[in-house]
Write a sequence for this structure.
């Protein structure tokens, strides 16, 4: 099986996912915020923020991720990834790829076999969605090639435009 076949796409709300882990698009202070971050903290309840404050008081550098429980979510874990604020410089791509890889590496370390991702950095952080979709899907595909312990990576895209951008890239990867 090609690793792109282990990637799924749905349009919807990531807080409702039943994968073992969901990823959050957080900020480097891990302070909560709007967008998917706000939705995850609202749905998961205060335990998630309490764990972040207790375990990561320094926050998390851009391009990295940290793990908490899922609180009241169906998912057992939340991976709090910090993507870059888009600047148009080459380092944006490195940091965004690194944010996805950090989440996947946490999955490997914690025995997490199924994980859902939002489209990190393409909301408030203004990363162009076509570029971000290509980078996210190529980064995940590459990781899965060498990490058979992860069975499913599902992208949960909130709006039609974002879903279409990811669908366009994934369809090509799956026919290669
Ligand atoms: N499920 C899935 N995707 C969602 C949901 C949801 N419930 N809600 C929004 N999205 P953003 P960023 C989509 O802005 O660009 C926060 O304030 C959204 O439509 O959430 O990485 C943090 O605290 C978009 O496609 O994240 C940071 O300060 C995607 O999720 C900052 O925003 C990402 O948009 C991070 O900005």
């Amino acid at each position: 099986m090609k690793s792109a076949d282990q990637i799924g796409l749905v349009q919807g709300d990531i807080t409702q996912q039943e994968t073992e882990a969901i990823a959050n698009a957080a900020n480097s202070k891990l302070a909560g915020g709007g967008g998917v971050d706000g939705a995850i903290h609202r749905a998961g309840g205060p335990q998630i923020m309490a764990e972040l404050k207790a375990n990561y008081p320094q926050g998390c550098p851009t391009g990295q991720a940290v793990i908490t429980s899922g609180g009241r979510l169906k998912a057992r874990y939340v991976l709090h990834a910090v993507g870059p604020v888009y600047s148009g410089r080459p380092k944006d791509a490195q940091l965004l790829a690194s944010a996805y890889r950090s989440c996947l590496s946490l999955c490997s370390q914690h025995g997490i076999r199924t994980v859902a991702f939002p489209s990190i950095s393409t909301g408030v952080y203004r990363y162009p969605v076509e570029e971000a979709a290509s980078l996210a899907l190529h980064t995940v595909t590459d990781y899965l090639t060498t990490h058979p312990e992860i069975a499913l990576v599902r992208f949960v895209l909130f709006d039609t435009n974002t879903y279409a951008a990811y669908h366009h890239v994934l369809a090509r990867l799956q026919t290669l």
Observations:
- The mean pLDDT is 97.
- Residues 91-110 form the longest helix (20 residues).
- The pocket of AR6 is lined by residues 13-15, 25-27, 33-37, 39, 83, 118-125, 156, 158-159, 162 (CB under 6 Å).
